[in-house]
Amino acid sequence: MDTVTASPAPESAALxxxxxxxxxxxxxxxxxxxxxxxxxxxxxxxxxxxxxxxxARAALAGGAxxxxxxxxxxxxxxxxxxxxAHITSWLHTPVTDxxxxxxxxxxxxxxxxxxxxxxVAAAHEQGVTATISLKVDTGLGRSGIGADxxxxxxxxxxxxxxxxxxxxxxxxxxxxxxxxxxxxxxxxQAQRLDEASADLVRLGVRPELMHLANSPSALTRPDLARDxxxxxxxxxxxxxxxxxxxxxxxxxxxxxxVALVKKVPAGQGISYxxxxxxxxxxxIAVVPAGYADGVPRLLSGRMQVHINGRRFPNVxxxxxxxLVVDLGRDGGGVREGDLAVLFGPPSPQATEPVPSATDxxxxxxxxxxxxxxxxxGRARRVYVGTAGRSAGDRDD
Length: 396
Ligand SMILES: *Cc1c(COP(=O)(O)O)cnc(C)c1O
Prior knowledge:
Blueprint: H1 2-6, E1 15-20, H2 21-35, E2 38-42, H3 44-48, H4 52-61, E3 66-69, H5 72-80, E4 87-89, H6 98-103, E5 107-110, H7 113-126, E6 130-135, H8 147-162, E7 166-172, H9 184-202, E8 209-213, H10 215-220, E9 228-229, E10 252-257, E11 260-264, E12 269-270, E13 276-277, E14 282-287, E15 304-307, E16 310-315, E17 323-328, E18 339-343, H11 357-364, H12 368-373, E19 380-384
Helix pairs in contact: 2-4, 7-8
This protein binds pyridoxal-5'-phosphate.
């Protein structure tokens, strides 16, 4: 972990997202242990901004049994990288290429009889059996087979399985209140999923597996874990329940090289619209990270940057490419090229705490999921740690 703050950035990169794969592996093991089941590591949205392939490899090294993504192309991207673990993909549209998914051995979790019909047609075309899961809307009110289409879908699955077009592997649903462990809807959703499975058994189809728990549920409700749990955010090291510490380690450090240090006189307005004016002579630093890279503009004047063990406040508007910090009259010893950590895991050796993605999220009323998955733009990903990596691996 200390290597992250010691040397996170190649000399040539202005902005880096340093991802510690050992943290992802350790977080995976921790979630599996608490849930008492196997883990489907969710690596959608490019591994929540950490890089889907390295995140998947790290989670598998940490003991994940399978992988989960939203879209078929995300699953095929993992296959193209040589990952042969079981992959479930659960968000489709009428233009989804189910044929490619079947050819790539992707488990298709389906939300409607129309999706099932399309998969059956694609399976017929290839003369193979497609592996499917059923995503049931047990109360989330989003994706998943709706109550009014359940009977029709169940009968169609039974028919399709009987003729060898599909093999039903898993029953899944997604919780509306996973982050409120005691909310009664959690147990009710599990019960509805059990009932849907029982309906299928009556039709002669026995689902092999069941999974419904996301990160918060996997960490707090082992009674809902069933056969597998499906965590995402916890694998990347963020607590899925506000205010609760599960001992997870954030995997990402977002850091930039200070681009410019200069003095400004009292009365100088800073950045667009001069929303901040220097009250006295001071020194500022320009940090090459902006909203195009995932630093929310809403954080303007509400975030701090960690340089050489100290925190300095952002002043003025955060722009597309850059933000400004106030170093104080004496410049705080900061020099051009020094590393400015925007957020990262706690660093015990630092005199002042490193800001976290969770701090950012709380400041602007969102969740750390949105912060980390929004990191991109020109941030160059760099990997540290050994989990899931081999000597020849390059950063992306
Ligand atoms: C994103 C997602 C998950 C993971 O949720 P976390 O809260 O990040 O653990 C699990 N299941 C489904 C269906 C999802 O869309």
